[in-house]
Amino acid sequence: MILFDGCSFTYGDELENPEKDAFPHLVARMGLSDGAKPRNYKSIGECGKSNDGILRTTLEFCEKNPVSIAVIQFTKFSRREVMRDWSIDKYLNIHPQSEDEVSKDYYKNVHTLNDDVANYHKNKFLLENYFNKKNIRYFFLNLQKMKMIRGYTPSSWFYMANKEPVINMKQILGGMAKRKENYVTGHPNKRGHELIAKCVYENIF
Fold it and tell me: 68: buried, middle or exposed (CB in 10 Å: 19+, 13-18, 0-12)?
């Protein structure tokens, strides 16, 4: 089975038919003869999901299901996941623009750039080691442009994580200003998802 996890880019936000045209579903059908069934796969990407949430849901899924390949799309580093006391919606993904009180309090009193970047490298390190232990092949994509993250102090997680480059979505799609043909507004259109699918397919098969 191929597992896909990520945020709205993996889910296919702004597509008319995300369950058909988002890149995980395209990859599942690529290279197959006409009429063949798609590969066995599962996409658990969700709009607004944080890298903490992506780590958690990926590990939970892999612990319960046989996975041979994992395609992980990391999101913006400032998004985080917090655990609340009640059982319904126990996990809350937050970001700097959230209007709820938990988010406002976190980004006012706790949030720092150093912690954002360290948290990303921690999540990446944990997934790399988990996948290697379970003999799961993996491919990483990233939404956050590292050139836009300046002035942070590298953490221990930075030095422990694999230094192999992670492909950034903008490397595939180009920026919205110059490559409008690949976007709806803030998310890839059908053409954009086809470009992402081609990149993923070439790297996992």
Answer: middle
Residue 103 inside a domain? The answer is no
As a whole number of angstroms, the distance between CA 123 and CA 138 comes to 14
Q: What pairs with residue 137 in β-bridges?
A: 69
Q: Which two tokens stand for residue 149?
A: 């993250």
120 in Cβ contact with 144 (< 8 Å) = yes
136 domain residue, yes or no: yes
The CA distance from 173 to 179, in Å, is 7
Q: Is residue 105 part of a domain?
A: no
Burial of residue 40 (CB within 10 Å: 0-12, 13-18, 19+) is exposed
Residue 130, domain CATH: 3.40.50.1110
Confidence of residue 165 (pLDDT cuts 50, 70, 90): confident
Cα dihedral sign, 153-139-141-106: negative
Report d(CA 91, CA 84) in Å as an integer.
6
Enter the pTM of the model: 0.95
Q: Is 108 helix (H, G, I), strand (E, B) or coil?
A: helix
Mean pLDDT taken over the chain: 95
